[in-house]
Amino acid sequence: MAQAVKKISRRKKMENIRAYAFMTPALIIIILFTIIPIIGSLVLMFFDYSVVGTTSFVGWDNFVKAFQDREFIIAIKNSITFVVIVPVIQILSILLALLVNQKLPGITVFRTLFYIPVVTSMVAVSIMWGFIFDTQGIINTLLQDLELITQPLGFLNSKYTAMLCLMFITVWQGLGYYMMMYLAGLQGIPQELTESAQIDGANTFQTIFKIKIPLLKPYIWLCSLNSVISAIGVFDVVFVLTKGGPNNATMVINYYSYTKAFGDFQFGYAAAIGAVQAVITTILSIVVFVYGKRGGMTNEE
After folding, report:
1. pLDDT in tens, 80-108
2. pTM of this prediction?
3. Max alpha carbon distance in the chain (Å)?
């Protein structure tokens, strides 16, 4: 009996060793490229750091400078504006999930097609849409061929349309991801519930709004939280297509921090901007989290 216990104990130790061995490479990468930079930025935000000159301690001056910086205030407003896409992408994703959840011929192909943008690099997606929105792109060419316009429209060159274009690209790229999340939730709903409702006389819309949507509330809460975090942290599409322009119309916090760090070499100031972004993201995430826990997006009564 004692030998059997020792064998089991030895086997568990070996399993633990194997598990840690498999996790070690990923943990090393996370420590080197995530944890250490975060700790470094927490210190850096209180310094006027210079790569070649003198580094001096400035305390809270970087934060004071940030909130007196007009461009940074604009970047905050634009980043918060980006959160507008959260309900849009969630509603569209739910509708899409309801559509592809049907048992139709070739529906697997449609699911795959909708998901392809998710596994495609945002840089590649941005470049593709840049060609489409270009003054010589597909949209302008089509509108001119239909004689709806006489001059090409600068979708990404206008302060009135540039942000809308970036938000559209973000929704298009993320739609498949959230669709799959909601599809998983829909397929987890017992078929007996919808069948019972239909027997009782419920039509398709009543089944969706009275059974499926309420049971999807935990998924809506989780996806909304993820979407808010992604919206505040948007960077790639801005970097590739607009560089924050025109006239700061698409300047967001992440890109502004990048320009200050690697454009102006104000690393301490950039670290302070990143800290403010983290606080804004945390506040908005708490709002979504608290709303969900109070019953707005959960199955708890």
Report:
1. 999 888 889 999 999 999 988 888 787 88
2. 0.85
3. 89
